[in-house]
Write a structure and sequence with these properties.
It is a single chain. The chain is α/β, with parallel strands linked by helices. Helix 2 crosses helix 6. It binds zinc ion. The site of zinc ion has 8 residues, from helix 4.
Length: 178
């Protein structure tokens, strides 16, 4: 029982480097800490590139020099963060304890969200819609508290269209909203 509550709590608070109405990325003095990404993230980076190539019709799309590693996100409530440094370099840091506590789908959403900031230049999108049957849905993986895995998996392709193209049509339709 206690474990279930804890898991629910963790799921509820899984959030990216973000405070409401504040800058979503951190600007720090100096330079990035890492030269390359840790192996744990390579399949997620490849998936992000593959989806970008498809959605943006850019077959050669690459994430480029934005290494992803486990590290100190500097704030307890941040499970992941996109850092931009004063010398122009960028990197993504993910809290290891969060990564190890969660599933593959949450990991993908988190990496795609942070690359949304660092690579696509996206800000947060806090829109939540309510259906006629009173269900609520986040309309973007750029919500500061990332979507639940089951909803994301069901509507992954529509969420990714929104991520790369800012186009919510397919997503809203999948929620039964038009
Ligand atoms: Zn964010």
């Amino acid at each position: 029982m206690r474990l279930v509550s804890l898991l629910l709590l963790l799921a509820f608070f899984t959030s990216c480097g973000a405070q409401k109405n504040k800058k979503h990325t951190q600007y720090l003095e100096g330079t990035k800490q890492y030269a390359v990404s840790a192996n744990a993230f390579s399949s997620y980076i490849t998936a992000f590139e593959k989806e970008a190539a498809k959605n943006l019709s850019e077959p050669n799309f690459k994430v480029g020099d934005i290494p992803i590693n486990f590290g100190d996100t500097t704030k307890d409530e941040f499970d992941g963060v996109c850092n931009t440094y004063s010398d122009g370099t960028k990197e993504i840091l993910i809290k290891k304890s969060w990564w190890e506590s969660t599933d593959k789908t949450q990991r993908e959403i988190m990496i795609f969200h942070e690359l949304g900031h660092c690579r696509l230049g996206r800000d947060h999108d806090e829109e939540i819609v309510t259906t006629s049957s009173n269900k609520t849905y986040k309309t973007s993986v750029m919500n500061p508290v990332i979507p639940h895995s089951d909803i994301y998996l069901e509507k992954r392709s529509a969420y990714l269209t929104e991520l790369y193209l800012y186009n919510k049509t397919a997503l809203l339709e999948s929620f039964g909203i038009n």
